[in-house]
Amino acid sequence: MMLSPDQAADSDHPSSAHSDPESLGGTDAKVLGSVSDLEPVEEAEGDGRGGSRAALYPHPQQLSREEKRRRRRATAKYRSAHATRERIRVEAFNLAFAELRKLLPTLPPDKKLSKIEILRLAICYISYLNHVLDV
């Protein structure tokens, strides 16, 4: 049923309810706001998986600090740099163990020791040297 503009204004029919914020009255208009106050949500092209891209990738200002950190670390450049730093750290660690190993007396001298064996032998050797100095 189509109403003329004059009939729509006079009608008490529910479908003709006023939708402008001022007609809602007082505080309700301020609470509800208007549609123009909302930011537009961009929809992704349908990929068949459901959900919207806006829901999966919120605006950067809406991300938590942890989410921003997680996304930054997910980049290939960051992973590559991290792998390089880790490789350098492990090489320095292994070099320090090799130098410590050279200072420890073992029979045979070229015996291969694990890192934990090197640490335990170093503890024993230091204790022995302290005992020798105390006597």
Automatic annotation (TrEMBL):
Domain of life: Eukaryota
TM region positions: none
Designated name of the protein: Nescient helix-loop-helix 2
Residue span(s) of domain BHLH: 77-129
Region annotation (Disordered) ranges: 1-81
Compositional bias ranges of the Basic residues kind: 68-81
SMART domains xref list: HLH
One Gene Ontology term, aspect cellular component: chromatin
Bias (Basic and acidic residues) ranges: 10-21
Keywords on record: Developmental protein, Differentiation, DNA-binding, Nucleus, Transcription, Transcription regulation
The UniProt record lists the keyword Glycosyltransferase: no
Gene name of the encoded protein: NHLH2
GO MF terms held by the record: DNA-binding transcription activator activity, RNA polymerase II-specific; protein dimerization activity; RNA polymerase II cis-regulatory region sequence-specific DNA binding; RNA polymerase II-specific DNA-binding transcription factor binding; transcription coactivator binding
GO BP annotations, alphabetical order: apoptotic process; cell migration in hindbrain; hypothalamus gonadotrophin-releasing hormone neuron development; male gonad development; male mating behavior; ovulation cycle; peripheral nervous system development
The UniProt record lists the keyword Transcription regulation: yes
